[in-house]
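As a warm-up, study this chain.
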Amino acid sequence: MAQEQPCSGSVGIVQPSDYLFEEELPLDCGRSLKGVVIRYETYGKLSPNADNAVLVEHALSGDAHLAGYHSPEDKKPGWWDDMVGPGKPFDTNRLFIVCSNIIGGCSGSTGPRSIDPDTGRRYDMDFPIITIADMVRAQERLMRHLGIKKWFCVAGGSMGGMLALQWGVSYPEAVNGTIAIATTARVSSQGISFNWVSREAIMNDQHWLDGNYEEQPQRGLATARMLAHITYLSDESMNHKFGRALQESPASDYDFAFSKDFRIESYLAHQGSKFVERFDANSYLYITRAIDYFDLSDCAEGNLANALKPVAAPFLIVSFSSDWLFPAYQSKELVRALLDNGNDVTYCNIQSSYGHDAFLLETEALGSLISSYLTNLPWEPPE
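Now compare it with the structure written out below.
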């Protein structure tokens, strides 16, 4: 929970909380989880009528630490700090913001490195396959624990956008508004392909040990991250930042070896090594598989509009012109399906050179859209 703000615009020092629910959590794969822990952080104050709560969903490698700092010594704030705080788009002067780590993750919530209550040992690869809907099902328990009957809004980018969309389908009565950013209603074969190669890199690392490792399979996990990171960028942004610049030598001098000649190679290696320090290989396997399985139209024989018929909340859908992981046409497909059902939809394709990462970087343009949407979003009390 957020404490006093040390300066204007900051939520200040925050502390995560853990919620343990004793009842079993049924999963789409047919199995269930016992003793599930959900780690979460909150910012702002819940109103007496609990009508100002916003759930912000994180992306694949994110966590519950959305904004602020965990200690005065922290050099880096939460992953969307520019967007959450007093006077910011997710304005904590009037909104109560919640962010939770998904199940399957490695940042406090139950995942493959957690202890199985039935065996007293780590799950590792005995952890059940999970889906985006399972993640939302766990968050619904957290919502009830917090005394919230209906979210004022559910928002997220990338995989977080998938979670936001799933909330509207799984619990339409519990969602007053939805913000889906740089996301899709169903993952394409290209997206599945990238995830497959990433998992192959991890599982073919000799140190993965069928998922029973004590130390991370560093090479495999770093390679998976490097591949994924390329999909988060764009050709334009990579050329602008790196071009064909060499790492050490003069521009006309190659090493004629397989070491890191180009600066982009060193950059990707750095991203991979940083990721290994904070993420878990098995969690990466499970989360990317959940993303692969995500297809809202599955429940309606492939008809997306029919699948979205239960959804009543007004939507803000945002894509980015240079995003080739979840291109704008996928957002437009979602918009068309919602409009076919008569939903209230606001859509914007922001011109940006940042690629998929634009949802984290285009804070001015995106923040303006979010502020306007939340300011004008009417409250429909739960029935």
